[in-house]
Every structure is written in structure tokens, then in C-alpha cells.
Amino acid sequence: MTSTVAEHEILAELNELTSVAVIGMGYVGLPTALGLHESGVGIIGIDLSQNRLDAIRSGEVDLIEADHRRLEKAVHQEDFQLTADLARMAEADAVLVCVPTGLDEYLMPDLGPLESACAALIAHARVGQTLILTSTSYVGTAGRLLVKPLVAKGFKIGRDIFVASSPERIDPGNVTHTQQETPRVLGGVTPACTAMAQRVVNLLTPAVHCVSSAEVAELTKLYENTFRAVNIALANEFAEISDGFSIDPIEVIDAAASKPYGFMAFHPGPGVGGHCIPCDPHYLLWQLRATQHNAPLVTQAMHAIAERPKQVVERIGNTLSRNGKGLAGTRVLVVGVTYKPGVQDVRSSSALDIIDLLAAKGAKVGYHDPLVSTIRVTGGQLDNVAEPDGEDWDVALIHTIQPGHGYDWLGECPLVIDATYRFDPSLFAN
Question: What is the annotated signal peptide range for this record (predicted)?
Fold first, then answer.
């Protein structure tokens, strides 16, 4: 029998939403838990890393200021609990899976954390719960990792347990597009699943775009980040084209953006990083290979993105060459190593690849980033140059500018190369 709206309302009344468990308390899970808690539900935050849980309790985590304020209040309240005990998820009315989905060294999906989280969820699932995948993954993930094993255990999906996909849309460090103001896509396995999951997601944002299935929601997220990847690759290519004509690419982009339709501005840079753009399109490409489908545009865009750090290093080498110098023995300071401004995250940051490539060519490389004290590179650990003197370096490569910090010392550096194309020294002087 097809579920009706009235049946959904009855289900909601029978399954009062008082507590939510969040599996994975990282860059996505912690802001999600704080948003839900502020909406009035109890939180069971689950993470297997005791170090992460301790960091959350002490407030030593990378969050926007508004979420830091929420965390300061939440950690002292009884209904905001942090634990490494996976069995605690059985206590919650709803469970959100927010674990990372990365790639291995061969650019294949690393499904280990997600598979483990879903296996634990199956082991502790109980009648009446709503289970929501927020991790970005391939099409059919909810079906394979949740629906099939739940059915095998005797659960009736959409009647006594509810499964949905609502991929996260959190932009770390971004205070403009907050979680509450950003619409979420939601697709349930059945209409009842969608209705039950919407009660949860509506606590995070009033704007929920419901789709016909979990698979639609999963593919939507892959399309979103593939769209960004393709356009970033195009912006980088136009930066190279502009350089060949001795034209400022930002002036070209700003001019094109004056068109009120048919254009969306993307900007060139030193490369991409973080947990989305370098990773998510590969989930799509991996799945397409299995079905013998081709996506040549996406494939080429991801190849171009992977090659971007090499182009940045070549740009440094070419600039030095015009002055009769080479990279060997040149002192290069990489300015900013996080993958984007305002965060402490160096995951997949192009700065790490650039540093390795520079070192391989004989450059003496250091970095300055007020948000990152040490990084791991091929040669081992590299420590932050906390107070750089521009005269100590032959080249300063601008990779990431951290808001609220001064960069007037760059005026003393003999050569400054802006890989962001948008650095204005006057805006960041002390």
C-alpha cells in the first residue's frame, strides 16, 4: 500500500524525535551535531578517536566563530554527549552518518570508514529509528550498505525503520553560506522514509529539497562537486591562456561576470584540496568504469586539476629563468598551506604537492601559515616559519591568504608570485 501524508504524520507522532546520534565528529559531523542540538534535540556524538573527542571537549577544533560559541555552551549540557561507544547509537531516535569518504593512492574510493560505520549502524539498529547517510559516496550506497543488510535482519524499510540520503552541504570556514541558510537535498528509500528523515534535516535548515529516491540525492551531490571541478579546471586553463596574451585573468573573469545570465564566475588558483572537489568526482568515475560508461570531460578535468601544482612550479621556474636563475638552491617560501582560507585543514592541499615538487627540483622550501604549525611532506616534517623576513627568501609563492593576518613583510621579498591571482598586499598590511 502506498504511504499517504496522513500515514507519515501518524508515523512521526509514534516516533517522537528527542535525540540524534551523529557518527563521525569531524569537519561535517561536529557542525551538524551543534546545529541539531541548537534546535532542541539531545545529541550523542560518536567518534572512535579519543583525541578528537578530547579536542572537542576542550574547544580546540576548527570551527567558525558562531559554532565555537555553540560548542562552548553545548559541552556543559547533559543532552550533548560525546562518546567512542558505537552501541550508544541504539539510544537515538535518528542516526546521521558523517564519516569521511576519501580516496586511496590509486584514486579509488576508500570506503573503509563508511563501510565500518554502516556495519555498526546495522548491528545496533532498532525499530523506529531514522537512518540518514550524509557522507558523499557513489550512487546506490544507501541501498548496498544499509537497506540490504537491514532487510536481511528482518526490518521492513519504510514501516519499522527509515533510511534516507541527504549529502552534506557544509563549507568549512564559510560564514556567508551557513548550514541553516543552505538548502539540503533529501531522498528517502520510500516516501515514508523521506517524510521521517525530513523531520531531522529540517532541524538543520528549513529549506529541504526532497527528491524521489536516495539514489537521486547521491548523484546530485556528485554532480554538484563535479560541476565545480570542471569549471575550476576551465578557470585554470583560462589563466594560462590569459598569461600567454599578457592579460590579467581576473579582469577577464570580472568582465565576463557582468553578464547577468549564462555565466558563473570561477577563479583560477594553485590547485584544489579538502574533502570534496579532489575526491567526489572520482567516486563517479570509478562507478562509471564498472558499468563501462565514459565521462571524457570529467576525466580530463580531474587530470587537469591533478596537474595544476606542476603548472604552478613551472610558472616559478619560468619566472626565475627570465631573470637568469633556476630553482636549484633557490629559497622559496610557500605562503599558506591550507586548502582554503580560514581553516586549518591541509587535506589534499595543493600546497603539499607544490612543496614536494619544489624540493625535488632542488629548491630550499619553507612555509608560513599562522593556522598550521607543522605539516608532513615527502622529506618528513616541516615546521612553520612563524615570523618570516621577506629578505630571507628569494621567492614567495602565495598559495593561501589567511584572513586577519598581516602580510606586509612580503614587500621585502625580491619576487612574489601570486598563485591565487587575487592577492592585494594593501588589504593585508598590519
Answer: none
DSSP annotation string for 371-382 = T-SEEEETTEEE
Contacts for 379-387: CB closer than 8 Å, 24+ residues apart = 382/355, 385/333
Q: Is 276 a catalytic residue?
A: yes
Query: Annotated catalytic residue: which of 193, 276, 279, 413?
Result: 276
CATH number at residue 119: 3.40.50.720
Q: What CATH number is associated with residue 263? A: 1.10.1040.10
Same domain as 143, residue 123: yes
Give dist(CA 384, CA 382) in Å, integer: 7
Averaged pLDDT for residues 269-295: 91
Helices (H), 128-213: 141-142, 148-152, 191-201
Residue 217 domain flag = no
Q: What is the pTM of this model?
A: 0.91
**Number of separate domains in the chain:** 3
The whole domain housing 321 covers: 308-428
CA-based nearest residue to 84, from 44, 113, 57, 112 = 44
Residues 110 and 179 placed together within one structural domain of the fold: yes
- Residue 372, pLDDT > 70, answer yes
Cell of 12: 512521526
Q: What is the pLDDT of residues 28-81, one digit of tens each?
A: 999 999 999 999 999 999 999 999 999 999 999 999 899 999 999 999 999 999
Same domain, 163 and 252: no
pLDDT digits (tens, 9 = 90+) for 103-149: 888 888 899 999 999 999 999 999 999 999 999 999 999 999 999 99
What Cα–Cα distance (Å) separates residue 393 from each residue in 98, 250, 318, 328?
Answer: 42, 27, 18, 14
Last residue of a domain, one of 267, 283, 302: 302
